[in-house]
Amino acid sequence: MIIGITGTLGAGKGTVAKYLVERHNFMYLSVRNFLAAEVLRKGLIVNRDTITATANDLRAKHGPGWIVEQILTEALGQTKALRQRDVVIESIRGVGEAQMLKSKGATLWAVDAEVHIRHKRIVGRASETDAVSFEKFVEDEKREWDNADPSKQNLKAVIAMADVVFQNDGTSEELFARVEEALKKP
C-alpha cells in the first residue's frame, strides 16, 4: 500500500505519517526532506521560500510528477523494504505528483484544519520553515493554493483529488481514529 498525504500548512500531515510509521510500520518518505537536501546542495538556506522555489524549478525542468517519482525510485534503489512494506509519502503539493502516485495505485489522503489552529501548531513545532507571522503564513498558503501552472503547487486541486479528507480540528486521538477507519477502506 502506498499512501500520499497532502493538505494545508500545519494541518497534521506529519502527525498522520508518524502515526502510520509507528503504529503500522509504514516506510516514511518525505517530499520536504528531499527538497531540503536539494536546497542545501545548492548552498541555500532551507526555508519555505527556497523549498518552494526549488520544487517549482525541479517540476518545470523534469516534469510535474518527477519529485515524487525520484523519491520512490531512490527508496526502491536503497532497499528492498519498499517492496515489503507499506509506504507513506508526506507533503504531496502538485497535481502531477498526485497523478503519478495514483498511477502507481496509491491512495491520496488530505488533512485540513482551521487556519488559526494550523498557525498555532506550526509556531509550536518551531522548525526552520515555520518561524512566520500569521500574515506570512496566510500569504504562503495562498501562493500554494491554486495555480494553473503544472510546475507549481496547487493544494486546492490536489486536495480535491484526495480519496479521504481528514478535518483535524480536534485531538490527536480523534484524528487517529479517523486514520484507522480510512485504513479499513479498500
How is this structure best described in words?
This protein is of the alpha/beta class. The protein has a single domain, classed as Rossmann fold (3-Layer(aba) Sandwich). The protein is built from ten helices and five strands. A five-stranded parallel beta sheet has the order 2-3-1-4-5, with helices on both faces. α2 crosses α3 and α4 (66-78) packs across α6. The termini are close together. The mean pLDDT is 90.
Structural class: alpha/beta
- Would you identify the CATH H-level superfamily? P-loop containing nucleotide triphosphate hydrolases
Strand content: 5-15%
* Rg computed from alpha carbons, rounded to a whole number of angstroms: 16 Å
What's the main sheet like? Answer: 5 strands, parallel
CATH topology: Rossmann fold
Shape: globular
Helix content: 55-70%
Domain module count: 1
Q: Name the CATH class.
A: Alpha Beta
Q: Could you give the order of strands across the largest sheet?
A: 2-3-1-4-5
Q: What is the CATH architecture annotation?
A: 3-Layer(aba) Sandwich
Which stretches of 5+ consecutive residues score pLDDT under 50? none
Pfam families: AAA_18 (PF13238)
Protein name: Dephospho-CoA kinase
Organism: Candidatus Adlerbacteria bacterium RIFCSPLOWO2_01_FULL_51_16
InterPro entries: P-loop_NTPase (IPR027417)
